[in-house]
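Support request, please re-run this one:
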Amino acid sequence: VKYLDFNSLFISIKQKDVVLQLNLSMCNIKELPSSVKELKNLESIDLSYNELAVFPQVLYSYRHLETLYLDNNSISVLPDNINELKYVQFLSIEENKLVTVPEALSELVYLCELYLDNNSIITLPKNIGKLKSLQILSLEDNNLTSLPDSICELTKLTDLYLINNKIETLPDNI
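Re-run finished. Output below.
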Protein backbone atom coordinates (compact mmCIF):
# COMPACT_ATOMS: atom_id res chain seq x y z
CA VAL A 1 0.00 0.00 0.00
CA LYS A 2 1.56 3.27 -1.06
CA TYR A 3 -1.05 5.55 0.40
CA LEU A 4 -3.67 4.88 3.01
CA ASP A 5 -6.21 7.54 3.88
CA PHE A 6 -6.44 7.09 7.65
CA ASN A 7 -9.34 9.53 7.99
CA SER A 8 -11.45 7.47 5.60
CA LEU A 9 -10.44 4.27 7.33
CA PHE A 10 -11.53 5.48 10.77
CA ILE A 11 -14.76 6.97 9.49
CA SER A 12 -15.65 3.60 7.96
CA ILE A 13 -15.30 1.80 11.31
CA LYS A 14 -18.88 1.48 12.47
CA GLN A 15 -18.44 0.53 16.13
CA LYS A 16 -15.61 2.79 17.19
CA ASP A 17 -16.24 2.10 20.86
CA VAL A 18 -15.24 -1.59 20.56
CA VAL A 19 -11.78 -0.91 19.12
CA LEU A 20 -9.36 -1.51 22.00
CA GLN A 21 -6.02 -1.88 20.19
CA LEU A 22 -4.57 0.06 17.30
CA ASN A 23 -1.31 -0.72 15.54
CA LEU A 24 -0.12 1.99 13.16
CA SER A 25 3.55 1.05 13.25
CA MET A 26 5.60 1.43 10.08
CA CYS A 27 3.04 3.66 8.35
CA ASN A 28 5.27 6.70 7.73
CA ILE A 29 2.94 8.83 9.85
CA LYS A 30 4.11 12.36 10.57
CA GLU A 31 1.09 13.20 12.70
CA LEU A 32 -1.91 11.30 13.89
CA PRO A 33 -5.15 12.06 12.04
CA SER A 34 -7.75 13.82 14.17
CA SER A 35 -10.31 11.13 13.35
CA VAL A 36 -8.37 8.72 15.59
CA LYS A 37 -9.90 10.60 18.55
CA GLU A 38 -13.15 8.80 17.85
CA LEU A 39 -11.66 5.52 19.06
CA LYS A 40 -12.34 6.57 22.63
CA ASN A 41 -11.87 3.18 24.31
CA LEU A 42 -8.37 2.44 23.06
CA GLU A 43 -6.28 0.60 25.62
CA SER A 44 -3.22 0.04 23.45
CA ILE A 45 -1.68 1.97 20.59
CA ASP A 46 1.52 1.28 18.67
CA LEU A 47 2.96 4.21 16.73
CA SER A 48 6.47 2.79 16.38
CA TYR A 49 8.64 3.19 13.30
CA ASN A 50 6.97 6.31 12.01
CA GLU A 51 8.07 9.88 11.41
CA LEU A 52 6.58 11.55 14.47
CA ALA A 53 8.62 14.54 15.59
CA VAL A 54 6.15 15.71 18.24
CA PHE A 55 4.37 13.76 20.97
CA PRO A 56 0.82 13.28 19.60
CA GLN A 57 -1.62 15.38 21.63
CA VAL A 58 -4.51 13.18 20.49
CA LEU A 59 -3.24 10.51 22.92
CA TYR A 60 -4.80 12.50 25.75
CA SER A 61 -8.22 11.63 24.32
CA TYR A 62 -7.84 8.02 25.44
CA ARG A 63 -9.01 7.73 29.01
CA HIS A 64 -8.36 3.98 29.12
CA LEU A 65 -4.92 3.94 27.50
CA GLU A 66 -2.67 1.39 29.22
CA THR A 67 -0.03 0.56 26.60
CA LEU A 68 1.82 3.04 24.39
CA TYR A 69 4.62 2.38 21.91
CA LEU A 70 6.39 5.34 20.32
CA ASP A 71 9.66 3.63 19.40
CA ASN A 72 11.78 4.66 16.44
CA ASN A 73 10.39 8.11 15.79
CA SER A 74 12.03 11.54 16.08
CA ILE A 75 10.41 12.80 19.27
CA SER A 76 12.78 15.14 21.09
CA VAL A 77 10.55 16.39 23.91
CA LEU A 78 7.98 14.74 26.13
CA PRO A 79 5.23 17.15 27.17
CA ASP A 80 5.01 18.45 30.72
CA ASN A 81 1.44 17.15 30.89
CA ILE A 82 2.39 13.54 30.16
CA ASN A 83 0.95 12.76 33.59
CA GLU A 84 -2.51 13.12 32.02
CA LEU A 85 -2.01 9.61 30.61
CA LYS A 86 -3.09 8.48 34.06
CA TYR A 87 -3.62 4.79 33.46
CA VAL A 88 -0.59 3.99 31.33
CA GLN A 89 1.10 0.82 32.57
CA PHE A 90 3.54 0.23 29.72
CA LEU A 91 5.43 3.05 27.99
CA SER A 92 8.10 2.55 25.35
CA ILE A 93 9.79 5.53 23.72
CA GLU A 94 13.00 3.91 22.51
CA GLU A 95 15.15 5.21 19.66
CA ASN A 96 13.97 8.79 19.66
CA LYS A 97 15.80 12.05 20.36
CA LEU A 98 14.97 12.63 24.01
CA VAL A 99 17.49 14.50 26.14
CA THR A 100 15.40 14.99 29.28
CA VAL A 101 12.41 13.37 30.90
CA PRO A 102 9.84 15.69 32.50
CA GLU A 103 9.12 15.51 36.24
CA ALA A 104 5.46 14.90 35.37
CA LEU A 105 6.37 11.38 34.22
CA SER A 106 6.88 10.56 37.91
CA GLU A 107 3.14 10.98 38.42
CA LEU A 108 2.19 7.97 36.29
CA VAL A 109 1.35 5.88 39.34
CA TYR A 110 0.23 2.78 37.39
CA LEU A 111 3.35 2.64 35.21
CA CYS A 112 4.94 -0.83 35.49
CA GLU A 113 7.33 -0.83 32.54
CA LEU A 114 9.27 2.11 31.12
CA TYR A 115 11.61 1.77 28.14
CA LEU A 116 13.68 4.80 27.13
CA ASP A 117 16.64 3.07 25.47
CA ASN A 118 18.67 4.62 22.68
CA ASN A 119 17.92 8.27 23.27
CA SER A 120 20.30 10.97 24.49
CA ILE A 121 18.89 11.34 28.00
CA ILE A 122 21.26 13.10 30.38
CA THR A 123 19.05 13.32 33.49
CA LEU A 124 16.06 11.58 35.01
CA PRO A 125 13.28 13.19 37.03
CA LYS A 126 14.36 13.79 40.63
CA ASN A 127 11.09 12.28 41.82
CA ILE A 128 11.28 9.09 39.76
CA GLY A 129 10.92 7.21 43.05
CA LYS A 130 7.21 8.14 43.04
CA LEU A 131 6.65 5.47 40.37
CA LYS A 132 5.66 2.95 43.03
CA SER A 133 4.36 0.38 40.51
CA LEU A 134 7.47 0.44 38.30
CA GLN A 135 8.98 -3.02 37.84
CA ILE A 136 11.14 -2.54 34.74
CA LEU A 137 13.17 0.56 33.91
CA SER A 138 15.32 0.37 30.80
CA LEU A 139 17.66 3.25 30.03
CA GLU A 140 20.31 1.59 27.88
CA ASP A 141 22.37 3.64 25.42
CA ASN A 142 21.77 7.12 26.83
CA ASN A 143 24.05 9.80 28.29
CA LEU A 144 23.27 9.42 31.98
CA THR A 145 26.11 10.27 34.36
CA SER A 146 24.18 9.72 37.59
CA LEU A 147 20.88 8.48 38.98
CA PRO A 148 18.60 10.46 41.28
CA ASP A 149 18.58 9.36 44.93
CA SER A 150 14.85 8.65 44.72
CA ILE A 151 15.51 5.69 42.42
CA CYS A 152 16.11 3.75 45.64
CA GLU A 153 12.43 4.24 46.50
CA LEU A 154 11.31 2.05 43.57
CA THR A 155 10.46 -0.88 45.82
CA LYS A 156 8.82 -2.98 43.08
CA LEU A 157 11.68 -2.52 40.61
CA THR A 158 13.03 -5.90 39.55
CA ASP A 159 14.93 -4.94 36.38
CA LEU A 160 17.10 -1.87 35.86
CA TYR A 161 19.02 -1.63 32.60
CA LEU A 162 21.78 0.99 32.36
CA ILE A 163 24.15 -0.52 29.80
CA ASN A 164 26.18 1.94 27.73
CA ASN A 165 25.71 5.12 29.74
CA LYS A 166 28.32 7.35 31.35
CA ILE A 167 27.41 6.72 34.97
CA GLU A 168 30.06 8.04 37.32
CA THR A 169 28.25 7.78 40.67
CA LEU A 170 25.37 5.82 42.12
CA PRO A 171 23.07 6.82 44.99
CA ASP A 172 24.36 5.68 48.37
CA ASN A 173 21.40 3.39 49.05
CA ILE A 174 21.76 1.27 45.92
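Residues 6-12 form the longest helix (7 residues). Residues 43 and 112 are 15 Å apart (CA to CA).
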